[in-house]
């Protein structure tokens, strides 16, 4: 039986009918049409589905949709500035070669975003800790770490 | 897809009532990182999920108790946990990934009762007690009696784990948890060892040896030179039995004695003999048994390190 | 003139769409009326299908079609044409497709699968190629005849054999000989996006496949063949590629699910989408070929390599995909890694009831190089020589022709080795001190295309509009490696315009010219040369048109920053846009367009598997410092240097990405990745138990670019896609030996294996 869910998504109020057994990922992709967040495994083991809920990075593929009630949710689509410009993290990823096939990128960037919101000058180890839950098969992580470092220092 | 209702009770009583109403065909859910996976694998098909996330009583956190809904991330950031409940802090830092730690709860992970649950061994050595609320009232269960087998705990039908009570440990007590894995994140332990030690003094002349890369046996010999005595000890092992267990015979060999390299080595051998590891996709029995021997010694040294150098981090030079 | 686009660290052109989540992957596409397909897999590794009852599934509301092997036209695909998309009669492995459904939503399709009743009669199975070769072993394909007597056999009729020189004489002459057996495991690509496609028909039964293939034209050909078998001969097939979420060779072959989608779409008369779950991706895509290698290596007293004798048994699994052809690439390092005049190589492929392998980055090279470079160090030790000096003595050099008739043009092997040595700070062996050691290994791979098929070509069409904005239509694909950016840089350099003004279209067979596919690290070289050729033709047209306007000889003109000017007088100039509009907006005017199909001057192998397969060869060297924890067997990488001879770095930033990415994939291959099979069943079909490396596992890494300026490459470039992980495993194995004196000959090098080896060594009385 459908239930009504209200939450804040990318800065806007959203009211939507949901089935209680949906995951947050299903709501975002299949109902709200926000395809930027990806499903990589469905078990919370790869991080491709990472979004930020209440300031914390979470795997939306195993996040019960009902727990989004009243929460502030940010997806990759929510990072663009009002005039459509790239977020400093997005720009850093582009500039440092941190994107190859790009499938892990939205989740990776959201984890990095959550990290920098909590710790704006992370060490290299802290960066690696922050993205430890995001798998990437293309880059070997090296340029991703460089990109996050550069975004943190504002360069 | 399994279809179910989703309830968010605000109190424990409400939750218990809901569970009674569904006659046990409902399941509790906290962070959901285990339950959602079980649902997807079709290992669970409840008629309803009863979320415990909105029950304030389950979030208490102070020096005497941790609520069941406290997330691993909250414990990770807790300075008291880092200093006084170091083994537990080690476990939460190494568990899963940041995304998992942000939602997975201490209680939920323990109730899932995997023999590999990282926080289980630390709670065992820290003498934690499980605080339980049920249709028949409240009760306490020592951690050692809480784990029954893989996926099985002492919780009776409908009962909710409220949290854990912990003793206050002084500054001559230190603890550590070593998680032996194949990669440095998002991994289950091949073997997990937790140790808690209480010694007779925290001021050692040889403290600097802890900053180098000397092997455990050498460090223990230096402790022996200064007649460091082990007043009390707990050793817990994970993934070497159907449930996380204490190595009580090994503990008996060490308690009340001056610490020595041979003594700790012998206790490690004893601990290994108290374990009954199996071959599995995740590791081989012989290797697990060998790792018990090695890691008990290392966790022992690490625990004392926390007493002797309480404000320092473990040094980068060291392999463990 | 100084280069303005080539050699620059240009951002990947599609990176902005990927970091904003707006790039469209196959997972993101929904077409009107689209149905969702799902596949039912076998319950046994080897069994007769006695009956399949789909009645209940067909009746489920929302189900639009149900197919089994009995309801589809007979058709087999694959390298050996032994693989039907839906199995009839029997199943030969646990990933065999037995039935398929399509329905209005994925959950209904999944539910329908549960309603299909299959009755099996289990048959004895065989999971070891050595067992499968024995007399009386269960036959995987009863009708498969082979050998001289044309008897039923599990051994494929693919007698791989390479002979050069006189191996017997060399064996007698050799002063030092070492022998060993090495084995490598199944690992899988783990593309972050799972496989998937959408099959869509128009009213005339022409097919459009939305796909994440990396071989659009070969796939097109395969689908055309299939359509013919399905009763639709002569129909058009269009392949449109979505953004591809990882390739690494996993999409170098067509899969059963693609044919199943086509058949479901034909049956339901609606587009059908099939996307794998992660579990399916592990179970039902084809992994890297596993190997068992017996190698014998010999050298003279002075240390000159004399011979290499290698024998391999390959587990071919239940059906034949590219895995069975990996010996053709294994021959590369076997015959041409270092100077070794006498070579013998034989390989047998054997059917079993296991999964079957296809292409994966390196295509056999990592497997063979593991054996060769490990064995080489054993040989150096036997000869009492330092492993670095031993390699240097036998290093390949420019201008040589190898025993497989490869013509080495540029060769940066020695330079790469020197980089490794200096950057690691390696001044000689460290004998078992504190568990630290050094190791290295070199690699050779094709770098200038590879004539595997009759054509190794790639076409490019360039069109320029009135505003000097350029569209480049290339047959090559981007699978994340950045080919579209490299092509844009090449065209930008030739035409003297900014890379931002170049739009690369590379994903539609209706629009783009032919290319054989993204494999053999060929894209920069072949697609690059193709784009270069087309750009030069455009440049010529531009200069001619400008020459008329400026009344100058075209040969005296140059283009820079969007302006064409006379070399002798810069005042005489005209903007590109003006040139183009002048040419267009006049009676009898023209639009500037050019095409160039580049097929490199390399050779197919002859009957002896010899011939100059590639125009140029890529070399490299990896070095590593490890620390081994003697008590746990865990290996920590302290330092890692990967030096690669790339000819010319067209885009150093993207190049570093290939080297780092390849290196980390290599580390996983060496230390932690393994598909664990038990009686044909995959036990770790998930990311928890299949150990990909995380960001916390990467060592300090240096990616070193060595430029040797390959004259036949576009601006001197050669390929890099695969070399990145070829020498990683042997470098680590060699370093572990240096550190603690044990040699692990079986990948992955797990803590268990190291500890077991250390304990065995201790028992024998060796010091540890």
Strand-helix topology:
The complex is a heterotrimer of chains A (155), B (320) and C (768).
Chain A lengths: L2 E7 L2 E7 L5 H8 L18 E4 L2 E4 L12 E3 L13 H8 L9 H14 L5 H7 L11 H11 L3
Parallel strand pairs in A: 1-5
Antiparallel strand pairs in A: 1-2, 3-4, 3-5
Helix pairs in contact in A: 2-5
Chain B lengths: L4 E3 L4 H10 L4 E4 L5 H6 L7 E4 L13 E3 L4 H5 L2 H6 L1 H9 L3 H6 L2 H7 L7 H6 L3 E6 L2 E6 H4 E3 L2 E2 L6 E6 L7 E8 L10 E9 L16 H10 L4 E9 L6 E2 L1 H7 L6 H14 L10 H24 L12
Parallel strand pairs in B: 1-3, 2-3
Antiparallel strand pairs in B: 4-9, 5-6, 5-9, 7-8, 10-11, 11-12, 12-13
Chain C lengths: L14 H5 L15 E7 L5 E7 L1 H5 L3 E6 L21 E2 L5 E7 L2 H9 L2 E6 L6 H4 L12 E2 L4 E2 L7 E5 L2 H7 L2 E9 L11 E6 L5 E5 L4 H14 L7 E5 L14 H13 L3 E4 L2 H7 L6 E9 L5 E13 L8 H11 L5 E10 L13 H18 L4 H7 L19 H12 L11 E11 L11 E7 L5 E5 L8 H13 L6 E4 L17 H28 L6 E4 L2 E4 L2 E7 H9 L8 E6 L18 E12 L6 E11 L6 H20 L5 E2 L2 E2 L18 E6 L21 H13 L10 H13 L5
Parallel strand pairs in C: 1-14, 12-13, 16-17, 20-21, 27-30
Antiparallel strand pairs in C: 1-5, 2-4, 2-6, 3-5, 7-8, 9-17, 10-15, 11-12, 11-14, 15-16, 18-26, 19-20, 19-25, 22-23, 23-24, 26-27, 28-29
């Amino acid at each position: 039986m459908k239930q009504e869910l209200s939450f804040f998504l990318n800065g806007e109020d959203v009211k939507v009918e949901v089935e209680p057994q949906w995951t947050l990922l299903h709501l975002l992709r299949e109902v709200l049409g926000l395809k930027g967040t990806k499903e990589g495994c469905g078990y919370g083991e790869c991080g491709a589905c990472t979004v930020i809920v209440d300031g914390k990075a979470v795997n939306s593929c195993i996040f019960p949709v009902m727990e989004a009630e009243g929460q502030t949710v940010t997806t990759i689509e929510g990072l663009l500035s009002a005039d459509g410009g790239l977020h400093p993290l997005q720009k850093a990823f582009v500039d440092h070669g941190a994107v190859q096939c790009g499938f892990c990128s939205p989740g990776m960037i959201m984890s990095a975003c959550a990290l920098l919101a909590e710790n704006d000058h992370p060490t290299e180890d802290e960066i690696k800790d922050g993205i430890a839950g995001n798998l990437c098969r293309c880059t070997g992580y090296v340029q991703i770490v460089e990109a996050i470092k550069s975004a943190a220092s504002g360069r | 897809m399994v279809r179910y209702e989703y309830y968010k009770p605000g109190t424990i009583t409400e939750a218990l009532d809901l569970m009674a109403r569904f006659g046990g065909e409902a399941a509790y859910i906290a962070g959901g990182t285990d339950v959602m996976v079980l649902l997807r694998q079709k290992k669970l098909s409840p008629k309803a999920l009863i979320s415990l996330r909105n029950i304030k009583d389950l979030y208490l956190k102070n020096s005497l108790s941790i609520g069941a809904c406290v997330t691993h991330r909250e414990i990770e950031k807790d300075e008291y946990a880092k200093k006084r409940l170091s083994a537990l802090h080690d476990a939460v830092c190494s568990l899963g990934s940041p995304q998992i730690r942000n939602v997975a709860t201490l209680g939920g992970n323990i109730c899932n009762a995997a023999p590999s649950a990282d926080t289980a061994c630390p709670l065992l050595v820290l003498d934690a007690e499980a605080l339980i609320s049920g249709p028949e009232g409240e009760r306490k269960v020592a951690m050692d009696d809480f784990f029954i087998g893989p996926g099985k705990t002492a919780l009776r039908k409908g009962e909710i784990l409220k949290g854990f009570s912990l003793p206050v440990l002084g500054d001559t007590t230190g603890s550590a948890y070593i998680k032996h894995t194949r990669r440095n994140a998002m991994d289950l332990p091949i073997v997990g060892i937790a140790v808690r030690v209480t010694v007779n003094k925290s001021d050692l002349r040889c403290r600097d040896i802890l900053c180098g890369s000397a092997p455990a046996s050498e460090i223990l010999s230096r402790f022996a030179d200064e007649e460091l005595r082990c007043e009390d000890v707990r050793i817990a092992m994970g993934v070497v039995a159907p449930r996380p267990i204490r190595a009580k015979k090994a503990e008996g060999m060490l308690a009340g004695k001056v610490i020595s390299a041979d003594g700790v080595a012998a206790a490690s051998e004893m601990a290994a003999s108290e374990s009954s590891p199996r071959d599995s996709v995740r590791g081989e029995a012989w290797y697990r048994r060998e790792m018990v021997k090695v890691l008990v010694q290392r966790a022992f040294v690490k625990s004392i390190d926390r007493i002797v150098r309480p404000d320092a981090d473990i040094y980068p030079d060291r392999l463990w | 003139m100084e280069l303005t686009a080539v050699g620059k660290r240009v951002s990947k052109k599609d990176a902005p769409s990927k970091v904003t989540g707006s790039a469209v992957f196959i997972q993101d596409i929904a077409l009107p009326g689209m149905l969702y397909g799902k596949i039912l897999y076998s319950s046994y590794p080897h069994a007769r299908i006695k009956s399949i009852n789909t009645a209940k599934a067909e009746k489920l509301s929302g189900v639009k079609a149900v197919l089994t092997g009995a309801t589809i036209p007979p058709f087999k695909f694959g390298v050996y044409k032994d693989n039907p998309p839906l199995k009839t009669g029997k199943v030969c492995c646990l990933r065999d497709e037995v039935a398929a459904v399509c329905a209005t939503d994925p959950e209904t399709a999944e539910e329908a699968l549960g309603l299909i009743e299959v009755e099996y009669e289990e048959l004895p199975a065989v999971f070891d190629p050595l067992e499968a070769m024995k007399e009386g072993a269960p036959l995987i394909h009863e009708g498969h005849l082979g050998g001289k007597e044309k008897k039923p056999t599990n051994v494929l009729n693919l007698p791989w054999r390479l002979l050069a020189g006189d191996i017997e004489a060399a064996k007698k002459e050799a002063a030092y000989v070492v022998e060993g057996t090495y084995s490598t495991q199944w690992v899988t690509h783990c593309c972050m996006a799972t496989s998937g496609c959408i099959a869509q028909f128009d009213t005339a039964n022409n097919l459009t496949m939305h796909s994440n293939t990396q071989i659009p034209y070969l796939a097109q050909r395969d689908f055309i063949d299939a359509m013919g078998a399905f009763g639709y001969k002569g129909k058009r097939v269009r392949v449109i590629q979505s953004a591809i979420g990882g390739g690494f060779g996993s999409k170098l072959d067509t899969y059963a699910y693609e044919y199943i989608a086509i058949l479901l779409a034909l049956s339901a008369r609606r587009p059908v989408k099939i996307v794998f779950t992660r579990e399916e991706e592990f179970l039902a895509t084809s992994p890297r070929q596993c190997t068992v290698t017996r190698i014998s290596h010999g050298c003279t007293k002075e240390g000159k390599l004399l011979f290499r004798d290698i024998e391999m048994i390959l587990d071919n699994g239940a059906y034949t995909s590219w895995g069975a052809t990996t010996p053709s690439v294994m021959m590369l390092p076997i015959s041409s890694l270092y100077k070794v005049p006498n070579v013998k190589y034989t390989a047998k492929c054997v059917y079993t009831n296991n999964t079957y392998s296809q292409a994966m980055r390196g295509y056999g090279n990592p497997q063979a190089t593991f054996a060769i470079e490990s064995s080489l160090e054993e040989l150096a030790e036997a000869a009492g020589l330092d492993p670095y000096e031993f390699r240097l003595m036998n290093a390949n050099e420019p201008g040589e022709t190898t025993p497989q008739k490869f013509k080495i043009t540029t060769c940066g092997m020695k330079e790469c080795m020197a980089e490794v040595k200096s950057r690691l700070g390696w001044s000689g062996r460290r004998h078992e001190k504190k568990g630290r050691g050094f190791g290295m290994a070199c690699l050779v791979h094709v770098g200038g295309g590879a004539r595997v098929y009759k054509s190794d070509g790639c076409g490019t069409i360039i069109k320029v509009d009135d505003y000097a904005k350029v569209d480049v239509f290339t047959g090559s694909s981007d699978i994340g490696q950045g080919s579209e950016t490299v092509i844009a840089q090449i065209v930008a350099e030739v035409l003297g315009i900014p890379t931002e003004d170049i739009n690369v279209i590379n994903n539609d067979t209706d629009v783009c010219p032919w290319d054989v596919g993204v494999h053999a690290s060929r894209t920069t070289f072949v697609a690059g040369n193709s784009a270069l050729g087309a750009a030069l033709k455009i440049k010529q047209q531009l200069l001619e048109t400008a020459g008329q306007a400026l009344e100058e000889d075209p040969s005296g003109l140059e283009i820079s920053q969007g302006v064409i000017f006379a070399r002798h007088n810069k005042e005489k100039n005209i903007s590109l846009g003006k040139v183009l509009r002048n040419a267009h907006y006049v009676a009898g005017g023209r639009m500037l367009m050019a095409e160039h199909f580049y097929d490199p001057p390399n050779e197919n192998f002859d009957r002896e598997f010899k011939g100059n397969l590639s125009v140029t060869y890529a070399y490299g060297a990896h070095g590593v410092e490890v620390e081994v924890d003697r008590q746990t067997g865990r290996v920590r990488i302290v330092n890692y240097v990967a030096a690669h001879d790339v000819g010319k770095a067209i885009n150093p930033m993207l190049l570093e990405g290939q080297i780092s990415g390849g290196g980390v994939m290599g580390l996983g291959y060496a230390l932690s990745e393994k598909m664990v099979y038990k009686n044909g069943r995959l036990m770790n079909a998930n990311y928890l138990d299949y150990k990909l490396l995380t960001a916390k596992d990467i060592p300090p890494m240096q990616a070193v670019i060595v430029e040797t300026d390959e004259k036949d490459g576009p601006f001197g470039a050669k390929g890099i896609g695969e070399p990145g992980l070829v020498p990683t495993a042997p470098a680590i194995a060699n370093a572990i030996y240096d550190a603690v004196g044990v040699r692990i000959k079986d990948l992955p090098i797990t803590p268990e294996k190291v500890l077991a080896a250390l304990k065995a060594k201790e028992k024998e009385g060796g010091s540890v």
